[in-house]
Design brief:
- There is one protein chain.
- The protein has two domains: 3-43 and 62-203, SH3 type barrels; 228-271, Ribosomal protein L2, domain 3 (Irregular).
- It has one helix at residues 210-215; strands at 3-5, 17-19, 36-38, 63-65, 78-84, 93-98, 103-107, 117-118, 131-133, 142-144, 146-147, 154-156, 164-170, 173-177, 183-187, 191-194, 271-273.
- 22% of the residues are buried.
- It contains one helix and 17 strands.
- The chain is globular.
Length: 277
């Protein structure tokens, strides 16, 4: 796992830094066909055809990899067959095979290699890639792919390099410190996977040119101050003017420091300590 840089033969290569993909398995270039499905691009449009998410479109054709976030096959050991690239997420994925020959994809944590044994269940060892209930995990352990509700599957801490820390256990809840710094109560019977999500160097990537953004399906973004008043609150004015107001979004919501979370949201009672400002 590392970064690949280039000699600056062209202006775009001068700042390009991409993954060297050294952690991937060379013998598994194609994904497991039964664990993929069609993925259609919406171009940012909803079911009515209206654009609800701007600056999306184009990009390379891809298929979705079905990931086992639930880790609900308990008590049966599995073996890692390969570590693969997933175009739909920043993390790498690992193909595992259980003793009954069923295969599944899981998020690949740091330190997992081909041939390693992984398992799910309360009796699993505290090793990277194993899934256990929070109540069975020692304090101070790094975890990822954490459930909010038992049986629903992991919903948080799933991106490259992410990890949470189990801080304490109190009654039916566990105190988990999330990557944002927030400490949150999560039911102790919810499952989490041991270790840190792999592909740590993802945050150091440099695309190098606009074309690589287009390959990823990201269209160009115009600055707000360069638009007309009809298109954005910060548009218009003689010369380079921001309109004499604080930076806002297209809908007029303040962009710096304004809290958009509802004060009476029902899940606020589970937040022990908010994220640092």
């Amino acid at each position: 796992m590392g970064l690949k840089t280039f000699r600056p033969f062209t202006p775009s290569l001068r700042w390009t830094a991409i993954s060297d993909f050294s952690e991937l398995s060379p013998k598994h270039k194609r994904p497991e066909k039964k664990l993929t499905e069609e993925l259609r691009s919406s171009g940012g449009r909803n079911s009515s055809g209206r654009m609800t998410s701007r600056r999306r479109g184009g990009g390379h054709r891809r298929r979705y990899r079905i990931i086992d976030f639930k880790r609900d096959k308990l008590g049966m050991p599995a073996r890692v067959l390969s570590v693969e690239y997933d175009p739909n997420r920043s993390a790498r994925i690992a193909l595992i095979e259980f003793e009954d020959k069923e295969r599944r994809y899981i998020l690949a944590p740091v330190g997992i290699t081909v041939g390693r044994a992984v398992s799910n269940g309360p009796a699993a060892e505290i090793l990277p890639g194993n899934a256990l209930p929070l109540e069975n995990i020692p304090l101070g352990t790094q975890v990822h792919n954490i459930e909010f509700e038992r049986g629903r599957g992991g919903q948080i801490v799933r991106s490259a390099g992410g990890y949470a820390i189990l801080m304490a256990k109190e009654g039916i809840y566990a105190h988990v410190k999330l990557p944002s710094g927030e400490v949150r109560l999560i039911p102790a019977n919810c499952y989490a996977t041991i270790g840190q999500v792999g592909n740590i160097d993802h945050e150091n990537l440099s695309l190098g040119k606009a074309g690589r953004n287009r390959w990823l399906g990201r269209r160009p973004a115009s600055r707000a101050v360069a638009k007309n008043p009809v298109d954005h609150p910060m548009g218009g004015g003689e010369g380079k003017s921001s309109g004499g107001r604080q930076p806002t979004s297209r809908s007029g919501v303040l962009a710096k420091g304004f809290k958009t979370r509802r004060k009476k949201k029902h899940s606020s009672k589970y937040i022990v300590q908010g994220r640092p400002r």
